[in-house]
Amino acid sequence: MKDIYKIIVAGGGAAGCAIARELSRYVNLDITVLEREDDVCSGTSKANNSHIVCGADLDPSCPVEIEMIRRSNRRWEEITAELDVEYTRCGSFNVALTDDEFTRVLPDLKKKAESCGVFTTRIIGRDELLSKEPHVNPAAKGALFVPEDGSLLSYYLVLALAENAAVNGVKFLFESEVTNLIHSPSAAAVSAWQVEINGGEKYLDADFVINSAGLYSDKVSKMAHWDGFEIKPRKGEFWVLDKKYSGLVNSIVYGCPQPDYRGTTVVKTRDGNLMVGPTARDLRDKEEKGTTPDGMEKGWEAGKRVFPWLDKSMTIHQYAGLRARCATNNDYIIGWHPDGSTPFLNAAAIRSTGITGSIGIGEYMADLLKERITLARNPGFNPVRRKIRRFETANLEERTALVREDPDYGEIICRCQTVTRAEIIQAVRNPLGVVSLDAIKRRTKTQMGRCQGGFCTPRLVRIICEETGLSPLDVTRRGKGTEILKRVTKKEAGK
């Protein structure tokens, strides 16, 4: 038996980072996460409404997805406390706007929830709905209330999982796409892999490969000769509203489901913005991430049906995200290679519930590895990660203390979101070593306000350069090829 087992995790989204963090609990594993982008949470995992479902709206014919979500659901309070990620079980509502929706659709949704093992849902009338969501359409008949559903910011969770994994010894290699897997069974009990990165730019050895490559999980699986499924992207488009309207919605509010997806929601995010979306449109191109006039309008009208006061002048941003929907299988594809011997694990076809199922997926992957090797607990594992202390949400006394402790808290860099120099510096010094503008945005909320980075971007570039020694010409939006400055046009005085 080996003393140390090398594990490659392909993909740095929610599932990959949850797997890496869970496996870092064991001392005899050497774990490397390979991510094709310049940071974790750069694909599907960042582009969603951060609704953490309890399983009430799942398809009863998807037992693996249900199991992963059940595993996650019982651990959310524990995990978010350890990682210092804001989370609340605020509940969700499916609002009925017609008599048919109230008398037929809502009871059907309740029965469906019970078939998935969720027995806490209840149908509420108009008066109770308005007491909880007073700004909902006054014509509403009532709603299905799902009290176990919750909300967090998905990218905060994934960043926290990754940063905690890194502190516990997991290595992250960015801009490192898996382009081939070469399987070479050895004389030992465990077979070996040679993992090709970026078309031969680099090769890594591994005893086990875990595939959590999201939209490209079918491609990676084929490299291990596990064929038979195909990932087809499903696009969801979103509107983001100014924070000054945050008091108009308290939780997660849907209309009744559409034939092919749960439907559009209006949700109050943990950052205080309101979000309207998503839509659902099946695509062939896994890189088609732009918004469309038709898609945006469809989502807006669905949101406006539930909240008629919505006005497009409230909008500060629009974006789209892709979900990794399997064209031939509606369930998650999780488990060992079907030949029974190849040391390859799939965490594939993780669709719109990927954030919700991520914690359970990580836990389950550890259980699967224990079927083949003995895992030794790491006595030095540190489950605690602390977030950057926010100036915006601090009261006057707390702000005074922050500035006294670190004068950089006294300089505002992002006026829209009230983000200080101290917060930017802490973000640049993140454990993953990622310093692109999008990486700083995800860690601090800069560039997310009404001006969308118009004021703070030059200041962010300066701080990144001061902290890292990079030239301003080398600062990128999101990795190589996205540099934001082309050449020097004016030298600073005295230089």
What does this structure look like?
It is globular, with a radius of gyration of 23 Å. It is built from 13 helices and 22 strands. By secondary structure, it is α+β, with helices and mostly antiparallel strands. A hairpin with a 7-residue loop joins strand 19 (333-336) and strand 20 (344-348). Helix 1 packs parallel to helix 9 and helix 2 crosses helix 9 (354-370). The chain folds into three domains: 5-48 and 154-230 and 329-370, 3-Layer(bba) Sandwich (FAD/NAD(P)-binding domain); 85-150 and 232-323, D-Amino Acid Oxidase, subunit A, domain 2 (D-Amino Acid Oxidase, Chain A, domain 2), CATH 3.30.9; 396-474, Arc Repressor Mutant, subunit A. 29% of the residues lie in helices and 21% in strands. It has helices at 14-23, 63-73, 76-83, 99-115, 126-132, 154-167, 217-223, 293-306, 354-370, 396-405, 421-428, 437-444, 457-468, and strands spanning 5-10, 29-34, 51-52, 92-96, 122-125, 142-146, 150-151, 171-173, 178-184, 192-197, 202-206, 208-211, 231-241, 252-254, 265-268, 274-277, 281-282, 315-326, 333-336, 344-348, 412-414, 419-420. Strands 4, 5, 6, 13, 14, 15, 16, 17 and 18 form a nine-stranded mixed beta sheet that branches. It has a six-stranded mixed beta sheet with strand order 8-2-1-12-20-19, with helices on both faces. The mean pLDDT is 94.
Keywords:
alpha+beta, 3 domains, 495 residues, D-Amino Acid Oxidase, Chain A, domain 2, single chain, Arc Repressor Mutant, subunit A, globular, 22 strands, FAD/NAD(P)-binding domain
